[in-house]
Amino acid sequence: MRSAVDAAMLAAIAAKCRSSAAIRASSDLAARETGRAKALEEREVTGISSGREAPGRQGRRLEILRLAGGLAARPPVRYTLERAAGARSPAAALSQARPGQEPALDYRRHAPASRFTGLVEHYWSVVSPAPPEPLRAVLVPNGRGTVQFCLGRPGRRFSADGPDRENADVYLPTGTAPMVIAQEGPSHYVGIQFTPWGGRALFPRAPDQPAQVVDAIGPLPGKGSLAEDPAPELDRWLDGFLPGRRTASHELLAQATARIDAAPSAVDVGSLSAELAVAPSTLYRAFRRGIGLSPKQYLQVMRHRAFTDALLAEAGGLPTALLAALAGYADQSHASRDFTRFTGMTATTFRDTYDGIARLMARSAG
Prior knowledge:
Elements: H1 2-44, H2 55-69, E1 80-81, H3 90-95, E2 104-110, E3 120-128, E4 135-139, E5 146-150, E6 155-159, E7 162-167, E8 170-172, E9 179-183, E10 187-194, H4 198-202, E11 211-212, H5 213-216, H6 223-228, H7 230-239, H8 248-262, H9 269-275, H10 280-290, H11 295-312, H12 320-326, H13 332-343, H14 347-353, H15 356-363
């Protein structure tokens, strides 16, 4: 009888030891997962202040900063947002622009068909008469890829990733580097703004760097139709790339980006995976494969966007230090480093001289 009791006790002790070992192994695995994801994040997140960029790219980014700095050397071009009376299409707005007045920019958003929900946020069109002098403007990252078609006189595009190119019929994937565009004469552009993962879902073989649509994707849509009514023609063009189904990775990205977009100042990347009930490495891979950025990079971009949106809205004259704190930055120096990294200028210069096109786009959102 005693031997049976002893055997039972030994079996219970062995089971407890196995359970403790399993708990420790699970804890160690979770720690390793978190450590790997954190290490990958640290390797991914680079910028001007990190000093880890390739020398050639550093020089190119300095050129972007020089071009952007030129915005402060002269008064900015101020636009008014105008929908020409009776203009049923963006092209008609340009033909009805009144000479002798300050430039009137027609910026519109067009709704895509419902079958593109979760892939495309909106279509857009911009029509503008010639500015009084050559225009240069900084385009800052917004966490979304875009395809842009030129229906008028193309400008030039300068980026940190290569030589300057004609700003026409281009696929711009999600990225973290600012761009400078230069435009002379009247302009007419039509484009697609994707969800953070929409560009890669529709064009999985497209490169990670800006590329001409004909090289990266295929034939262009009909530009005559784009000029009159962009939405039906863009719907027709995208139908050829529509994926058969929405993947679990897209669902995860939808949840994660929705949380970050809603309140980037309140999100901690380290706890985001736990909130979504996935491993840190799973979330990291979903972002890198689906968006092209790591979760931390995406959070940085959206935090910066919240900061710049507040500056564009002028935020009731609040000081930039307070705006930075409201956007979730630990201190103003941190905000200043990110601001230079993403825009090529200081926050004060941005608020005082930023081109009116971006201001109008921000105010007409929704």
